[in-house]
Amino acid sequence: MKRPVLVLVVAVSFLAAGAQTPKSREHYLNEVNYFTEKIEKEPRDITNYYLRATFYHILTNFSSSNHDFKKVLEIYSANPSKKYAKVATDACYFLADDYYFRNADRTSARTYVDKGLSISPGDKRFEVLQTGILGSYPEKAAEAGKKFESLIYKYPDDIQLILYYAKFLERTDSKKSIQHYEKAVAINPYNVDALFALGSYYTNEASRIYKSDGDAGKVLDYTQKGVSY
Fold it and tell me: What is the C-alpha to C-alpha distance for residues 197 and 4, in angstroms, rounded to an integer?
């Protein structure tokens, strides 16, 4: 396996795990320096920018990672190639995800979602993120609801989609929202977003029932559920 490919596999694995120790940080910085040297020698090599961007991202240097991901798209757009379509698509997803979640910039996020889908039509990641962004607009609730239902049918076990839909439903149908958060926990018992939402819901429900002099047994049951999450 060639070094860039191996490095990419390792980088993405660590990125997914969120792993970073003093020793690993030093390693990532060394990789950044390595690919900086490669870029100086081969300034039009799309892979080198992508790999450096990935290590910048791991190091939480988002300004630099976004700059390199955009460079990937600049080079790809100038000479589209099937060989680099996946790299360009992944760069779009990194940018869309970063703009939406870290910067709360839905407009820029949608730009890169659209760009990603233009390169790789039907890519599930973009379909899911696109629907999540749509669902964040209250005035587009009806359209978003239909799209969520369609995607849930298409991807019933996609945990990110389930979480988006559960969050969307919080505004209109709390019981259905909780059902989807519970489904997310059934898929991944350690999902923090789902656990927090469920814990908050059951704790708040117990408090509400208690204050209205409701069923003491239900108060205890909901309190125990809230604590369990």
Answer: 40
CA–CA dist 96, 42 (Å, integer): 27
The pLDDT tens digits for 72-128 are 999 999 999 999 999 999 999 999 999 999 999 999 999 999 999 999 999 999 999
Tokens representing 14? 């660590």
Q: Would you put residue 158 in left (φ > 0), alpha (ψ -120 to 50) or beta?
A: beta
18 sits in the region (left: phi over 0; alpha: psi -120 to 50; else beta) called left
Picking from 74, 70, 123, the residue whose alpha carbon sits closest to that of residue 98 is 70
C-alpha to C-alpha distance for 218 and 212, rounded to whole angstroms = 12
User: Considering the entire predicted model, what is its pTM?
Assistant: 0.77
CA angle 190/193/199 to nearest 5° reads: 85
Q: Are 99 and 109 in contact (CB under 8 A)?
A: yes
The residue type of 216 is A
State the Cα–Cα distance between residues 164 and 184, nearest whole angstrom.
Answer: 11
d(CA 131, CA 134): 5
Residue-level pLDDT at 6: 45
First vs last C-alpha separation in the chain: 43
List, for residues 3-60, the tens digit of each pLDDT value.
554 455 445 544 544 556 767 888 999 999 999 999 999 999 999 999 999 999 999 9
3-state helix vs strand vs coil in the chain, percent to 5: 80, 0, 20
CB contact at 8 A, 137 and 108: no
Look up tokens 């990789």; give the residue.
Answer: 31
